[in-house]
């Protein structure tokens, strides 16, 4: 075998091995997307009911609560950024990070100090590399977040927002996550979580001109709101975590699919080159044999004379 | 009059039970409350405790609910809980073990959770 042909053969072998890996990763991601989507669907009833309840209290009573009232002057905002622990997901993480940076820039332009909270090793690595301070970070559950994880993330955020601004608390809470639109489309979005804009929440839930009944609050509207709002924040964060997870798997699936396709193409090209090299080698050998034979024939013909 | 209410018992990550019922008894922070069809719209904070649902076909569903809310309007009742388990889903032995462990460690909230589970399981 010629040296050229051997090089091609070796490259084909290594690309085939890579293709097998990316193909496997694609299939794993595809099955995980379905699972993650199912989790999103399973968490929806709780989220809808909770939103309804929050709207009911918010619109049905004149209760003032730190989580629903906009501070007169916002000096500090918290931004919660959801990324994944692992890469190989195309632009998934960079899109989320970019969105977070745009949001941070906008908030800073408005004269607010931004405190960053991050979920997922990728985001943490990005911020650490740039030597920016992270208030708190979590990782290890981004592939399959549970409600307990959401609670863990929400706790310090709720605490921060309940703390007075002068004591290092925050006035606003924004969340940046990747919305799962469909298998093919996932968009990074930044949304304000707190203070709650009740009219906005109400718009979403009562789009069908539903009139909310006058509720009787047990024990009192304040207490209900006190108990409801942290749960609402947790549920929103849980939903965002689940959507991010689903989006990450979808992005991985897409990235791995194009990697597999590219590997296939590369194998085709390399096989053609290898075939051409083999043919060239054979042609050369034939011409060498023919050339050698005719040279011999010429030589013997010459000696005969 | 429609003597039925539609009940949805929803945990944070799944819908635990839903169906028609005639009476729902749950424990709010200010005491036990029973809801029957036609009740005034209500929104309350739940204590962890067992919830009893009397279904319209005469059966009884008991669930252990740990914290959450009850909301009722238009004969539709939703029980929202972070954690909710139906009595027949509860692993009694595990709950007993938990109870002992919690007692030994003096973990009041874990003890309460295990206790609620056991009470819900014994009511089935």
From TrEMBL, chain A:
Cited Pfam families: ATP-synt
Q: Does the keyword Transport apply?
A: yes
Looking up InterPro entries in the UniProt record yields: ATP_synth_F1_ATPase_gsu, ATP_synth_F1_gsu, ATP_synth_F1_gsu_CS
- Which top-level group of life is the source organism from? Bacteria
The signal peptide stretch is: none
What does the entry give for GO biological process? proton motive force-driven plasma membrane ATP synthesis
GO CC, sorted alphabetically, is: plasma membrane; proton-transporting ATP synthase complex
What PROSITE patterns does this protein map onto?
A: ATPASE_GAMMA (PS00153)
Q: Cite the GO molecular-function annotations of the record.
A: ATP binding; proton-transporting ATP synthase activity, rotational mechanism
Q: Where in the cell is it found?
A: Cell membrane; Membrane
Q: Which residues cross the membrane?
A: none
**Sorted alphabetically, which keywords does the UniProt record give?**
ATP synthesis, Cell membrane, CF(1), Hydrogen ion transport, Ion transport, Membrane, Transport
Bilayer topology: Peripheral membrane protein
| Family listed | Belongs to the ATPase gamma chain family.
Classification via HAMAP family: ATP_synth_gamma_bact
Q: How does it assemble?
A: F-type ATPases have 2 components, CF(1) - the catalytic core - and CF(0) - the membrane proton channel. CF(1) has five subunits: alpha(3), beta(3), gamma(1), delta(1), epsilon(1). CF(0) has three main subunits: a, b and c.
Tell me, what does this protein do in biology?
Answer: Produces ATP from ADP in the presence of a proton gradient across the membrane. The gamma chain is believed to be important in regulating ATPase activity and the flow of protons through the CF(0) complex.
Under what name is this protein listed?
ATP synthase gamma chain
UniProt organism field: Streptomyces griseoviridis
From the broadest rank down, the organism's phylogenetic lineage runs: Bacteria, Bacillati, Actinomycetota, Actinomycetes, Kitasatosporales
From TrEMBL, chain B:
Pfam families xref list: ATP-synt_DE_N
Assign the protein's first listed, main location to one coarse class. membrane
The family database entries (InterPro entries) matched by this protein are listed as: ATP_synth_F1_dsu/esu, ATP_synth_F1_dsu/esu_N, ATPsynth_dsu/esu_N
The protein's superkingdom reads Bacteria
Q: Which GO terms describe its cellular component?
A: plasma membrane; proton-transporting ATP synthase complex
Q: Which UniProt keywords are listed?
A: ATP synthesis, Cell membrane, CF(1), Hydrogen ion transport, Ion transport, Membrane, Transport
Task: List all Basic and acidic residues biased stretches.
Answer: 101-118
**Sequence ranges assigned to domain ATP synthase F1 complex delta/epsilon subunit N-terminal in this UniProt record:** 5-83
Q: Where is this region: Disordered?
A: 101-124
Keyword Transport carried by entry? yes
Annotated GO MF terms: ATP binding; proton-transporting ATP synthase activity, rotational mechanism
Q: Where does the UniProt annotation locate this protein?
A: Cell membrane
Name the membrane topology term. Answer: Peripheral membrane protein
Q: Which family does it belong to?
A: Belongs to the ATPase epsilon chain family.
Function as written in the Swiss-Prot or TrEMBL entry = Produces ATP from ADP in the presence of a proton gradient across the membrane.
| Subunit (UniProt) | F-type ATPases have 2 components, CF(1) - the catalytic core - and CF(0) - the membrane proton channel. CF(1) has five subunits: alpha(3), beta(3), gamma(1), delta(1), epsilon(1). CF(0) has three main subunits: a, b and c.
Q: What is this protein called?
A: ATP synthase epsilon chain
Q: Which organism is it from?
A: Streptomyces griseoviridis
The beginning of the lineage is: Bacteria, Bacillati, Actinomycetota, Actinomycetes, Kitasatosporales
List the gene name.
Answer: atpC
């Amino acid at each position: 075998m010629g040296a050229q042909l051997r090089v091609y053969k070796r490259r084909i072998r290594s690309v085939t091995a890579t293709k097998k890996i990316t193909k496997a990763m694609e299939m794993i991601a595809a099955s995980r997307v379905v699972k993650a989507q199912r989790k999103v669907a399973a968490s929806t009833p709780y989220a809808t009911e909770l939103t309804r309840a929050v709207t009911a209290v918010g619109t049905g009573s004149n209760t003032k609560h730190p989580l629903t009232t906009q501070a007169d002057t916002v000096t500090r905002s918290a931004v919660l950024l959801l990324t994944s622990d692992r890469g190989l997901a195309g632009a998934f993480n960079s899109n989320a990070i970019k969105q977070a940076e745009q949001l941070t820039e906008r908030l800073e332009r408005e004269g607010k100090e931004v405190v960053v909270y991050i979920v997922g090793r990728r985001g943490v690595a990005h911020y650490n590399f740039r030597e920016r301070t992270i208030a708190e970070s979590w990782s290890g559950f981004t592939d399959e977040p549970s409600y307990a994880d959401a609670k863990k993330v929400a706790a310090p955020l709720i605490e921060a927002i309940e703390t007075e601004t002068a004591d290092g608390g925050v006035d606003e809470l924004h969340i940046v996550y990747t919305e799962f639109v469909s298998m093919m489309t996932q968009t990074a979005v930044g949304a304000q979580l707190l203070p709650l804009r009740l009219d906005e929440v109400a718009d979403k839930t009562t789009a069908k001109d539903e009139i909310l009944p006058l509720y009787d609050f047990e024990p009192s509207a304040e207490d209900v709101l006190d108990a409801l709002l942290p749960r609402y924040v947790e549920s929103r964060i849980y939903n965002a975590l689940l959507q991010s997870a689903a989006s990450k798997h979808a992005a991985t699936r897409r990235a791995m699919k194009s990697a597999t396709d590219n590997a296939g193409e590369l194998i085709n090209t390399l096989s053609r080159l290898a075939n051409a090299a083999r043919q060239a080698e054979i042609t050369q050998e034939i011409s060498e044999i023919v050339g050698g034979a005719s040279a011999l024939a010429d030589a013997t013909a010459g000696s005969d004379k | 009059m429609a003597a039925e209410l539609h009940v949805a018992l929803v945990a944070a990550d799944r819908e635990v039970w839903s169906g028609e019922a005639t009476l729902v008894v749950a424990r709010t922070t200010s005491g036990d409350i029973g809801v029957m069809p036609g009740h005034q719209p209500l929104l309350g904070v739940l204590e962890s405790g067992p919830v009893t649902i009397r279904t319209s076909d005469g059966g009884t569903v008991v669930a252990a609910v740990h914290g959450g809310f009850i909301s009722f309007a238009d004969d539709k009742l939703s029980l929202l809980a972070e954690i909710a388990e139906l009595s027949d889903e509860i692993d009694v032995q595990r709950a007993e073990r938990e109870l002992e462990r919690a007692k030994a460690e003096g973990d009041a909230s874990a003890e309460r959770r295990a206790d609620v589970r056991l009470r819900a399981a014994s009511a089935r």
